[in-house]
Amino acid sequence: MSDAGFELASTQFFDTITINTDKAQALFKQAQEKNINLRLLNDNQLTIAMDETTTTEDLKSLLAIFGQGSTLSCFDKVEPCHGQVRESVFLTHPVFSLHHSETEMMRYLKRLENKDIALNHSMIALGSCTMKLNAATQMYPISLPGFSKLHPYAPATQTQGYQQLFKDLEHALCEITGYDAVSLQPNAGSQGEFAGLLAIHAYHQSRGDAHRNICLIPSSAHGTNPASAVMAGMKVVIVKCDESGNISVDDLQEKAQKHADNLAAIMVTYPSTHGVFEVQIQKICDIIHTRGGQVYLDGANLNAMVGITRMGEFGADVSHINLHKTFAIPHGGGGPGMGPIGVKAHLAQFLPGDPLVKDSNAVSAAMYGSASILPISWSYIKLLGKHGMQRSTEIAIVSANYIATELKDHFPILYRGDQGMVAHECIIDIRPLKDESGITEEDIAKRLMDYGFHSPTMSFPVSGTLMIEPTESESKREIDRFITAMVSIYNEIQNVISGKWDRENNPLKNAPHTAHEMSGEWNYPYTRTQALYPVESLVANKYFPPVKRIDNVYGDRNLFCSCITTEDFK
Ligand SMILES: *Cc1c(COP(=O)(O)O)cnc(C)c1O
Fold first, then answer.
1. Where does a domain end: 16, 46, 75?
2. Which residues are near ligand 1 (CB < 6 Å)?
3. For residue 99, how many other CB atoms are within 10 A of its CB?
4. Which terminus of the chain is less hemmed in, N or C, by CB atoms within 10 Å?
5. Distance from the CA of 542 to the center of ligand 1, in angstroms?
6. CA torsion sign, 284 to 290 to 296 to 297?
7. Is this prediction's pTM over 0.70?
8. How many domains are contained in the chain?
9. pLDDT tens digits, 379-421
């Protein structure tokens, strides 16, 4: 570019260069005619971004636009700028150089897969996480180049398909939630919370109420709620729960009244993180509204509501929707997820705007967040339709209640609604058994690995408990397998209580048992079969945890690397 007489905005750059030119508009148009998208920063600046997929042919076409012929002699004399050459070694782990054939790569990936208890092995009843099927049909479209290769800022004229998908999805989510407008920008539920609170703040500000900064949060809330409130500059005031796990309406009334002048919002989860439909929800919303506050309803438990009730109708003003929970986007490795927010009409103008525009309430670097995974939720909604989604909700709730009923004589169900039912998940209380036997919720979680199951959610939202959410995806047969495992574990705990098994040296405390322990000496006071095959069905389908129990607290406090040198890798 310099050779062609153009002025660069900087001398050092990574993958993007900015050119200062009064011909920016014309060059931008010429490039578009050649199917090249440049970015027009303003009338006098143009940027060009490159990546590893840019070919020599692309460069030739590009340079031609800037009147730089087609010779790429400059390639020969490219010398990285001083100070930008990496001198340290990198990617030294043998794994980056070992697998050179597809066969080896395939086996390597399979070996990694074998180490995991994933949904392709057994149900993952993680309460609050909604680990439902990610159907292959729904996943398929995200590999299509039309979805996967588009730049988030490709010109609108080139993204008509995506625009249609956004509209469809926004419309469907409005229908499902009873809200008036949806933003597809937030990349996670937590980011949706942040975006929602920014919208609430902007709303208060627009009414001359910028001082409203108190956010009421019940003690049962997900940890992201208070974190988001603090990030949005609010002050958190905790509201108590009663012994049935419901928000204490008395305490709420008192705190809402006390902070009435400065009340910004409440963040409330429905059905609650305790797994029950809180019957006072409308009253809770009213208490906040009459004192000038807004209701942020955490929509993570939407899987218990789709087709049955709509949060926009019972008093909430804004919610996030975890597409990676309720609407089938896979999650478990940490993302990417999507946490769109829905709002009532009065908040619509405060939804996140274009991140390239200053002060637009944007929470992400692109207008539509992780747009490329939206086809999954779109397909889920289109394939199931209204009745299919309602049926899914019903089965999710029935399955949770079935588990609660089957397990209640072994593990008390901590919270239930007025009519004795739970919502789409249930919390079993381990504390009474723990007091009697010394067996902890963590011992049970680890022992479940020996039975081939991922543990349910542990110690959230109540310490010393397990929260179980089967979702609609699991068959009765699989749920029964899980119940059998839990009942068997209960019986094992009875062995500890009765003194038949040692209190410290038993299959629960020593769980999980690894494949390595199958061979060699056996130093436990119980048999290998008791340890590794406690129920019959495991003979046909056994999962071996690759590592024994680790010291969580030590691991959290001490950073260490398990990397090995090439020489040591056998
Ligand atoms: C999962 C969850 C969140 C947070 O959502 P992320 O997408 O993980 O950020 C918030 N609240 C509740 C109740 C949840 O279950």
1. 75
2. 128, 188-190, 222, 224, 269, 273, 298, 300, 322, 337, 339
3. 15
4. C
5. 32
6. positive
7. yes
8. 3
9. 999 999 999 999 999 999 999 999 999 999 999 999 999 899 9
